Amino acid sequence: MFEKLSNWGRWGKEDQRGALNFITDAKRASAAALVKTGEVISMSLPLATITANDNPQPVTHLMIQAGTDTPRQAMAGVADYFSISPHGFATTHLDALCHVFWQGKMYNGFDAAEVGSHGAKKCSIEVTTPGVVSRGVLLDIAKAKGVDWFEPGHHILPEDLEAAEKDHGVRVEEGDVLLIRTGRPKRRAAKRGWEPPTRGLIDMAGLDVTCLPWIHERRIAVLGCDGTSDVIPTGYDDIGLPIHIGTLVVMGIHLIDNADLEALSAQCARTGRYAFQFVMAPLLLRRGTASPLNPLALF
Asked: Hey, CA dihedral for 84, 90, 91, 95, is it positive or negative?
């Protein structure tokens, strides 16, 4: 499957942008034409500062100066400090193509040694500095199946993706940002938390490995999910997370993990529109392997 789906060399042997190359100026212009009412929907979770089963490394938020410390007789202000470990299961973030290796290589054959103690020299999050603007498509798999959410470990298959397209009256096309809803935030809120890990990873619903050829065929630019895209357990515990490997390493597709797609789901259902303008501007983190993210959908 690796050789059949590989995009290595597709845009040259030095390319570090991967499937972002599918987003052309014409694609961005056509996405902008989708905006009719000007409504904006955020797809980000709040930064999680409390330790939980799915958040062992919470965000640190400290106040450098608070309003209770400021003098009253002159101009004053407040300031704070955030420390964020973006990877994991709690923070909405964008994985850089250097985040995952397969047999010592990242996307386009760059060696794992290109990522050292000072960060990534190849395929870092810096390649998204111009931002990502394209057509976004939500495939609300849970809605198409008639459920509020999927239980952890539920496998989403290629036929589920196509059934959702039919249900929504939309088709995923080249250069799209594809967003997959499993209902995870809604389930987490209803259950008041998440189950503890059983194999070092948090079990959750996601895409089965058989979805990789479908993703390759559609030539998407970015894949996002309200989980981490992979179903966990994957059934391939000896190789790790096959969707992460197949997208980040093999096809050069950046991943959005832990998106909150509940408000977007409601908006799409209300309007009957499952395609919209998608906008995200990751932080300019030199040599970074990820960026916290607040992706936006414009209608």
From this structure: positive
Q: In sequence order, what are the residues at sequence separation of 6 or more whose Cβ sits closer than 8 angstroms to the Cβ of residue 111?
A: 104, 105
Give the predicted TM-score (pTM) of the model. 0.97
How sure is the predictor about 74, in pLDDT bands with cuts at 50, 70 and 90? confident
3-state helix/strand/coil string of the chain: CHHHHCCCCCCCCCCCCHHHHHCCHHHHHHHHCCCCCCCEEECCCCCCCCCECCECCCCEEEEEECHHHCCCCCCCCCEEEEECCCCCCCCCEEECCCCCCECCECHHHCEHHHEECCEECCCCHHHHCCCEEEEEEEEEHHHHCCCCCCCCCCEECHHHHHHHHHHHCCCCCCCCEEEEECCHHHHHHHHCCCCCCCCCCCCECEECHHHHHHHHHHCCCEEEECCCCECECCCCCCCCCHHHHHHHHHHCCEEEECCCCHHHHHHHHHHCCCEEEEEECCCCCCCCCEEECCCEEEC
d(CA 147, CA 179): 17
Q: How does pLDDT run across 125-153, given as a tens digit for each residue?
A: 999 999 999 999 999 999 999 999 999 99
C-alpha to C-alpha distance for 177 and 209, rounded to whole angstroms? 19
Side-chain-side CA neighbours of residue 8 (13 Å): 14
- pLDDT band at residue 199 under the 50/70/90 scheme: confident
Rounded Cα distance, 198 and 83, in Å: 27
Name all domains of the chain by residue range, CATH numbers in brackets: 2-46+88-298 (3.50.30.50)
